[in-house]
Specification:
CATH class of the largest domain: Alpha Beta
Distance between the termini: 52 Å
Strand content: 15-25%
CATH superfamily of the largest domain: tm_1862 like domain
Helix content: 25-40%
């Protein structure tokens, strides 16, 4: 830290997060480890002394976005200390330490010690970073969240899909202990939160490192009697059974919303990816969810352009998706990651083919989202107010089944984190809700 920075009595710190909800949970944890007199600011609108960029390594686009952000921060805050951390920094320290804009590069193991690193300059650009082996037993922050805290109860991955660099970044799978999860839930509720998002890098593998599984996690939630609802961030289909799905969807405290990454609807491509499940296995999980509650929101990840994906493979994926009860698609293109098996595979589709396939799936995604919203017209759902009332009087809210709306507060006074029953009204691509107060 520069002498000029040490003279500042109250540090202005910005944290920019790129990537998944596990990264967002890590950012909240870093906020909690800042000096007590630090204030978190918006780097684009406020003065900034320290900028922490929490990177993502899943795609080359995510890394490129991080580099752009770092350069933009340096242009806007010439004298700020820029610290880079996260998965991309963990995988390849060198590319970040070589950036002239970057002052510090630290690994995931150091995210609880931000204050020490800023004070001591203990991590030097280019220094080797150890693979994480911990990170789910430390304190869960009560601050640094918005309306829905991300409670990380699992980290790491030991499965090793052919395209994925995450195991190298995050290390082996490990779980947060049950007693800590219970304490976290009650502490977050006491702090004023009414929805908690349970997240992890490979969430469905929670408990395997100490001899249990996700069914035991549901047992923990069964014992929670306070007025709080839960949402799972993402669950891999190979970790689930139709019976587990039914138990999740029927649970009175779990939101009827599941995000189940599929990646491809073609069996050949799934095998090349090393996904260990088939399209028919996946469909059984979706059917179990809808059978339990027809209003369940079901989302998925779809990867386009994986090596070996020919026209037939894509058509199989497109037709499979059309026939499922999925309500939205998260679509992205395959990005080769150095050190993964897929990076050496032949048969990557042409750019033109990938672009055409991407557009076809975007159209399908828009149709599915609109159809689901129309199916909810006239129904009353519990909505969580996400943002406090603004000068414009417009707030956003999220239903238990993952419908996000913008509404004018009018005579109503909403507060962030408040849960209100609202009747849904929809007309084509516009959706609103009338408060049932």
């Amino acid at each position: 830290m520069t002498p000029e920075l040490q003279k500042i009595k109250r540090l202005k710190v910005a944290i920019i997060t790129i990537g998944c909800r596990a990264n967002q949970a890590d950012s909240a944890r870093m906020i909690s480890s800042l000096p007590q007199d630090a204030v978190v600011v918006d780097p684009w609108t406020d003065p900034c002394d320290i900028a922490i960029v929490n990177t993502c390594a899943v795609t080359s686009r995510a890394e490129a976005d991080a580099r752009k952000i770092i350069r933009r921060i340096r242009r806007k805050h010439e004298n700020a200390t820029i610290l880079v951390t996260g998965c991309a920094a963990q995988v390849d320290t060198g590319i970040w330490s070589e950036m002239p804009e970057v002052d510090l590069v630290i690994g995931l193991n150091a995210r609880d010690e931000i204050e020490k690193y800023l004070q001591e300059n203990a991590s030097f650009p280019g220094q080797a970073i150890k693979t994480p082996t911990s990170g789910v037993d430390g304190p869960t922050p009560l601050h640094g969240h918005r309306s829905r805290p991300f409670l990380k109860i699992q980290d790491g991955c030991s499965r090793g899909c052919a395209y994925c660099i995450v195991p190298k970044a995050r290390g082996p799978e490990r779980s947060r202990r049950p007693e800590l999860i219970k304490d976290d839930i009650h502490n977050l509720f006491d702090a004023g939160f009414h929805e908690i998002v349970l997240t992890g890098v490979h969430l469905g593998r929670w408990g395997y490192d100490f001899g249990t599984d996700i069914a035991s996690l549901l047992d923990i939630l069964d014992g929670i009697t306070i007025d709080v609802r839960f949402r799972f961030s993402s669950l891999e289909p190979m970790d689930l059974t139709p019976d587990i799905i039914k138990r999740i969807i029927s649970h009175p405290k779990i939101c009827p919303h599941l995000h189940l990454p599929l990646q491809s609807g073609d069996r050949k491509i799934l095998d090349l990816m090393g996904r260990n499940h088939s399209p028919s296995d996946y469909l059984k999980l979706l059917e179990a969810a809808i059978e339990t509650n027809p209003d369940t929101a079901l989302g998925t990840d779809i990867m386009i352009g994986f090596p070996g994906e020919d026209d037939e493979s894509f058509i199989n994926t497109l037709n499979f998706l059309k026939d499922t009860p999925l309500t939205y698609l998260h679509i992205f293109t395959y990005s080769p990651r150095k050190g993964t098996r897929a990076a050496l595979m032949p048969g990557k589709p042409t750019g033109k083919a990938v672009t055409e396939r991407l557009e076809a799936l975007k159209i399908l995604d828009k149709t599915k989202r609109l159809d689901f919203r129309k199916s909810q017209a006239g129904k009353v759902r519990p909505f969580l107010i996400e943002n406090p009332e603004r000068k414009s009087g417009v707030v956003t809210a999220l239903s238990d089944n993952y419908i996000r709306i913008r509404l004018t507060a009018g005579n109503y006074r909403f507060s962030s984190g408040q849960v209100i029953a609202m009747r849904i009204d929809t007309n084509d691509d516009y959706i609103c809700a009338v408060p049932e107060i």
